[in-house]
TrEMBL record:
<dbReference type="Pfam" id="PF12838">
    <property type="entry name" value="Fer4_7"/>
</dbReference>
<feature type="domain" description="4Fe-4S ferredoxin-type">
    <location>
        <begin position="41"/>
        <end position="71"/>
    </location>
</feature>
<protein>
    <recommendedName>
        <fullName>4Fe-4S ferredoxin-type domain-containing protein</fullName>
    </recommendedName>
</protein>
<feature type="domain" description="4Fe-4S ferredoxin-type">
    <location>
        <begin position="9"/>
        <end position="38"/>
    </location>
</feature>
<dbReference type="InterPro" id="IPR017896">
    <property type="entry name" value="4Fe4S_Fe-S-bd"/>
</dbReference>
Length: 151
């Protein structure tokens, strides 16, 4: 058995847990995990086995949807095939652009709820895409500047 195949680990994705945040793709130094937004879904692809000697993708996943299992043997189907999965996207409340997933939106609200409650502000920016968030923030800054200048 070749040394490379001895170190192969099978990538197992729990699609039900995956929130579609693409942290795994960003963390993969080898760029084995790829994603692309296509219409109403975010499509992912990755090799079924990984020879990289790290667990960056697994550590980056905020919902523990990734498992790396040691592979025994040389099953060609595992080493040459791709793993694919998809997560549905939701639209921006303002412009309608598909930008995130419902699971990720809920996760953000859950993680940030206490912070926003302590500030007395609702997390009203979460249902907005990055462009609309930027536009909203620019509007708020202009409004605050005008109010400040009137004193």
């Amino acid at each position: 058995m070749s040394p490379t195949l001895e170190r192969q680990r099978r990538l197992v994705i729990d699609v039900e847990k995956c929130c579609g945040c693409f942290a795994c793709a960003a963390a993969c130094h080898e760029k084995f995990i790829q994603f692309e937004d296509e219409g109403p879904v975010r499509l992912y692809s990755a090799p079924r086995t990984c020879g990289a000697l790290c667990d960056a993708c697994q550590r980056a996943c905020p919902v523990n949807a990734i498992d790396l299992q040691l592979e025994n043997g040389t099953d060609e189907r595992l080493t040459t095939s791709k793993l694919t999965w998809s997560v549905a996207l939701i639209p921006c409340r303002k412009c309608g652009q598909m930008y995130t997933t419902e699971k990720l939106r809920r996760l953000l609200v859950e993680k940030l709820q206490a912070t926003f409650e302590s500030l007395g502000q609702p997390p009203d920016w979460i249902p907005l895409c990055p462009r609309c968030r930027r536009d909203e923030e620019a509007y708020r800054l202009r409004a605050a500047t005008r109010t400040f200048q009137s004193f």
